[in-house]
Amino acid sequence: MKSSGPVVKLSSPATGEFWPVPVVFEDANLLALNKPAGLLTSPDRYDRERPNLMKLLHRDVERKAPWVAARGLDYLANAHRLDFETSGVILLAKDKPTLVSLANQFGTTHPEKVYVALVQGVPETESFEVDLKLKPDERVPGLMRWSKEGKQSLTRFRVLERFQGVSLLECRPVTGRTHQIRVHLKAAGFPIYADDDYGDGQQLFLSSLKRSYRLKEGAEERPLTPSLALHAWKLTVTHPVGGHPVEITAPWPADLEVALKYLRRYAV
Question: Which of 124, 191, 204, 228 could form a disulfide with 85 if both were Cys (CB 3.0 to 4.6 A apart)?
Fold first, then answer.
């Protein structure tokens, strides 16, 4: 994950995991981070012991970690979430009034959210939308499914780049349902790479792109998409104090950049 600015270093003694989390925006009221894939935003309802971003942040606030002390922080709260598998912009409030303002915004369709996804297949049109109602899947706890009895869910998609059997899509969720983009892309026939829950878990390998690819004897090829190829790229909100629009962007993860480099070289 690329970063040229400050980095919040988080760790979980219980699991031995470590996460350098880049700061992508900050002012007196707001702190935005580029959440890595493979880290929960908040506690798991089924396993409260799993490491999650907010628990780690709150621990650092309580113990006045150096990055917290340097900012004079005594409060941090999130107004929205990202999936465990999804990387990208996560916005935090530094005080309660800011949290209330952000929560009101995220409770409507006002925040503009833009994701990028690397998917299987190539749409026939440059843009399309999926309007399917979603509800929790009673058969598989934690997942969502389409249902006439579900809540209204709308996502707009645009093709950014086309390759041989692969596409890079811009995804704009108008509503904010759990796993919305992933379910909608599955329904449209374009599952996201490395989506074990809503796709077939298929990963992209260099050997499938480069004809002259040769793997060293005894070695195992690593996928270009080791984690879900979905990234929360941009977020635009109304500033809780100033009232002006604030656009926050999160650099794309390194594995996505590498996958695109090889796709542009071998799959155009």
Answer: 228
Give the whole-angstrom CA distance, residue 257 versus residue 4.
16
- Its pTM stands at 0.93
Yes or no: say if 157 and 129 are a contact pair by the CB < 8 Å rule.
Answer: yes
- Tell me the one-letter amino acid at 165: G
In the set 83, 95, 197, 255, the catalytic residue is 83
With beta carbons less than 8 A apart as the criterion, state whether 228 and 204 touch.
Answer: no
**7-266 has CATH 3.40.50.970 classification:** no
φ, ψ for residue 106 (rounded to 5)? -75, -15
Domain coordinates in residue numbering, the chain:
7-266
Tens-place pLDDT, residues 76-99: 999 999 999 999 999 999 999 999
- Verify whether residue 74 is a known catalytic residue: no
In tens, the pLDDT along 134-183 reads: 999 999 988 999 999 999 999 999 999 999 999 999 999 999 999 999 99
